[in-house]
Amino acid sequence: AQTVTQSQPEMSVQEAETVTLSCTYDTSESDYYLFWYKQPPSRQMILVIRQEAYKQQNATENRFSVNFQKAAKSFSLKISDSQLGDAAMYFCAYRSPNTGNQFYFGTGTSLTVIP
Amino acid sequence: DVKVTQSSRYLVKRTGEKVFLECVQDMDHENMFWYRQDPGLGLRLIYFSYDVKMKEKGDIPEGYSVSREKKERFSLILESASTNQTSMYLCASSLGTGGSANVLTFGAGSRLTVL
Q1: Is A26 strand, coil or helix?
Q2: How far apart are the C-alpha atoms of A40 and A106, rounded to whole Å?
Q3: Which residues of B touch A106 (CB under 8 A)?
Q4: What's the gap in Å between the CA of B86 and the closest CA on chain A?
Q5: Among B42, B92, B108, beta carbon nearest to A108
Q6: What is the mean pLDDT of residues B11-17?
Q7: Per residue in A55-88, pLDDT tens?
Q8: Which of A20, A50, A73, B79 is least enclosed by beta carbons within 10 angstroms?
Q9: A46 touching B, CB under 8 A?
């Protein structure tokens, strides 16, 4: 099984500042998909952003962007202009096209936004 | 929007009881998943199903079984609940394709406490 590692169990950021959450993964596959999911307190997990491994361009969704470094197997999430509503647990996930489309998750990073 | 509905948000059961967790999705997704979420461990896959009556073991299937009699419904069964199965259970669904549209949509979760 692929391994996804999030080395920062907790992070904090001042409101309106920028924060970067780290994610690394281990794979021998060349084609795969990467995701960041957000789980607000007591609320449903939702997709934040996705990246196809064959695309060199980093994905962007409004204030959320990724830094995808395929050779380094790194997939960090940058949140710009942080808002109170960004406070949540963030999970990095890997999807393999070769193992029944399974998704593999990291252990999560809990983000606190300080007013 | 796809909706994934989990029948129970909170359950309290006794050791040895049989427990059913139900999950229904309304967008004709091929794949359905059951994950267990524990602090510091992230999401771990219990079982998934890529078609009616089909099931595949995930990383932690011991003590669990599943049923998928209809495409929209995927049930997780604890035959004899134990205290170490106290956890948050997340159901998710996804398209059966291999492309970038194949993302997980989650239910709100079922928090199970086994006494």
Answers
A1: strand
A2: 16
A3: 42
A4: 17
A5: B42
A6: 97
A7: 889 999 999 999 999 999 999 999 999 999 999 9
A8: B79
A9: yes
